[in-house]
C-alpha cells in the first residue's frame, strides 16, 4: 500500500465523520496556507516510517511501521470545535480504523504546536503497519 493511498483513505474517513471542517492533505507549500475556514481544518501528512527485520530467509519480507501526522488548526482552544475537542474526536474516529492491506491505526502522540493571533495548532499522530515485500526480478 503506498503512502498517498493511505493518506487519502484517512482523509475520506475523517470527511465522512467531521463534515463541517476543512480536511485535506498538508499543503505542498505550508507557508502559503491561509486559514479561512470558519470552524477549523485538519491537515494530514506522512511523518515517516520504520522497517522491521526480515521475516524470511529466501525473500525480503518486513513489516513497515508508518506514521501519519494530523495537524489541527482552529480559532478555539476549549469551546465547541476547539482544539481539545477535535483531538478527542479524531482519536475516537481513527483509533482502530483499518485500511485494506494495513493493520488497524492507533494513536502514538499528541501535542501543542503553536498559537499565533488566536489561531491554535495541535497535532496528533497515528501509526499503522503494512507489509514490505521484495520485488522479484525475472
List the helices and strands and how they pair.
Blueprint: H1 3-17, E1 22-25, E2 40-51, E3 61-74, H2 83-94, E4 106-116, E5 119-133
Parallel strand pairs: 1-2
Antiparallel strand pairs: 2-3, 3-5, 4-5
Name a few traits of the molecule.
about 140 residues, alpha+beta, 5-stranded mixed β-sheet, about 40% strand
Characterise this structure:
- By secondary structure, the protein is of the alpha+beta class.
- It has helices at residues 3-17, 83-94; strands at 22-25, 40-51, 61-74, 106-116, 119-133.
- The longest helix is centred in the first third of the chain and has 15 residues, at 3-17.
- The protein is elongated.
Gross morphology is elongated
Q: Report strand %.
A: 35-45%
SSE pattern, N- to C-terminal: HEEEHEE
Strand order across the largest sheet = 1-2-3-5-4
What is the distance, rounded to the nearest whole angstrom, between the alpha carbons of the first and last residues? 22 Å
Radius of gyration (CA) equals 17 Å
> How would you characterize the largest beta sheet?
5 strands, mixed
What structural class do the secondary elements suggest?
Answer: alpha+beta
Helix content: 10-25%
Mean pLDDT: 92
Low-confidence runs (pLDDT<50, min 5 residues)? none
Alpha plus pi helix count: 2
Got a strand count?
5
Q: Can you give me a brief rundown of this structure?
A:
This protein has helices at residues 3-17, 83-94; strands spanning 22-25, 40-51, 61-74, 106-116, 119-133.
